[in-house]
Q: What sequence folds into this?
């Protein structure tokens, strides 16, 4: 039997609240102009997730699209009422790589305001659509800090055909001159490269045993908390399948959907979980306060200073 997770090491559980047709890969097949007439499945799937978390006594962070929240206000209130953290996923899943600063500012401000009005709580966290903050648009982290966010989870320190900033630190680091903590996608350093082990399609692609081994290695060997992400549509194998989807998209989107919920149950059983704002409270607080008394530094400098510690 594999070794248990060290006493006191808690990982963060997160959900990116969006519907199946709102993912970036579906843009050519279900345009935004068709969203209003497309039946929504997200609320029913979130209800299943809330029941699953309640069964395992897990609290999580729900990064929620403003577009979804506006149409499902009771769902948002239930997320908060059950003790989970409410966070922002932007308004309608627009990749930051396609936005200019003022459009991005309006997007994240509008979403934060709506979520706070509906949930009655402060919204401190943000996750970009498709992890679309990287070396070419790091200005977005300053915009987030200006808008009042305290942390972001928007950078993937991996190589990927659609996103990624492999030179970024693997664990939480200061951004926006110390006004914001960036908590990257959880990765494992293996064979000279960073491997995503924090959820999404990788969790459905690899056998569950790999994900468990990788996260335990991060907890035990590196003494770090990780965080896991998934989407409500990933527990919904009966979701509609738009016509004309490419083979690559079919593979990435539909692979092992029927196995997702059973694997989640194992994951919830095998590790300790909590909300992002509680698991990373020390980092969120200290990464900001550590820099506030010093001159602002560029993220490039922060990356250079911390990249040496990014390995195992």
A:
């Amino acid at each position: 039997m594999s070794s248990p997770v060290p006493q006191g090491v808690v990982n963060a559980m997160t959900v990116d609240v969006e519907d199946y047709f709102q993912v970036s890969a579906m843009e050519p097949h279900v345009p935004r102009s068709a969203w209003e007439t497309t039946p929504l499945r997200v609320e029913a799937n979130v209800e299943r997730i809330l029941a699953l978390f309640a069964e395992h006594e897990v609290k999580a962070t729900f990064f929620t699209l403003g577009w979804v929240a506006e149409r499902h206000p009771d769902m948002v209130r239930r997320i908060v009422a059950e003790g989970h953290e409410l966070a922002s996923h932007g308004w309608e899943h627009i990749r930051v790589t396609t936005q200019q600063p003022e459009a991005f500012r309006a997007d994240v401000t509008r979403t934060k305001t709506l979520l706070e009005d509906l949930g009655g709580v402060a919204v401190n966290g943000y996750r970009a659509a498709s992890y679309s903050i990287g070396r070419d648009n790091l200005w977005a982290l300053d915009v987030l800090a200006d808008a009042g966010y305290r942390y972001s989870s928007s950078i993937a320190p991996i190589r990927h055909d659609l996103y990624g900033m492999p030179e970024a630190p693997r664990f939480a680091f200061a951004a926006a001159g110390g006004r914001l903590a960036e908590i990257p996608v959880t990765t494992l350093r293996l064979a000279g490269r960073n491997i995503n082990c924090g959820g999404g399609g990788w969790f459905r692609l690899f056998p569950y045993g790999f994900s468990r081994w990788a996260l335990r290695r991060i907890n035990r060997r590196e003494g770090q908390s990780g965080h896991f992400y998934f989407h409500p549509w990933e527990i919904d194998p009966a979701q509609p399948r738009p016509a004309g989807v490419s083979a690559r998209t079919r593979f990435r989107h539909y692979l092992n959907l029927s196995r997702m919920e059973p694997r989640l149950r194992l994951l919830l059983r095998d590790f300790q979980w909590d909300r992002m704002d509680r698991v990373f409270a020390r980092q969120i607080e200290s990464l900001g306060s550590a820099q506030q008394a010093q001159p602002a530094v560029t993220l490039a400098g922060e990356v250079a200073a911390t990249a040496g510690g990014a390995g195992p």
User: Anything to note?
Assistant: The chain has one domain: 11-305. The radius of gyration is 18 Å. Confidence is low (pLDDT under 50) at residues 1-6, 290-298, 300-312.
